[in-house]
Amino acid sequence: MAARTARRGKYRRVGARLQGETGSRRIPLCERSRIVFASGLEMVASPVLDRAGYHLLVFRSDNRTSKTVSLRLFAALPIPDVIAERLIGLQKGVPGARWRPRENLHLTLRFFGEVSEDVAEDLDGELACVRAKPFEISLKGAGSFGGASPHALWMGVEAHPSLIMLAKACERAARRAGLKAESRRYMPHVTMAYLNKTELDRVKAFERRCALFKTPAFTVDRFHLYSSLPRSHEPNLYRIEAEYPLG
Question: pTM value?
Answer without folding.
Answer: 0.74
